[in-house]
Amino acid sequence: MAADSTSLAQLVSPDAEFSVFRGDYSTSAKAKGPAGAIEMVADMDVVSYQTLLTPRGPIAVMPSECLWTATLLLRTHEDGRGITMRFKFVDGRLIPARGDEVEILEGKLTQTE
Q1: Predicted TM-score (pTM) of this structure
Q2: Residue 3: what are its φ and ψ, rounded to 5°?
């Protein structure tokens, strides 16, 4: 775990907070920064992830601070359940990550004539 914290320190702000809203209550990592990231991941029991990427157009000039977000659907061992996590980054470092536990409904569409 110490090696993970050392590597994560380059990617995660020391003040980054991690929380997941689970219906009528919220779970949060007690620690902040890299230690909080490790704590939150251990609590989530994630087995896979999904994200949507849209093709980007031409490169735009950014303000002096590069701010962007990424949203992942993290799937757990429980069928039909997961966590949507929104990660916010400033200048390439994660600042907070907040999520919601979700039910996943999937189906196929059939064509009728």
Answers
A1: 0.77
A2: -65, -40
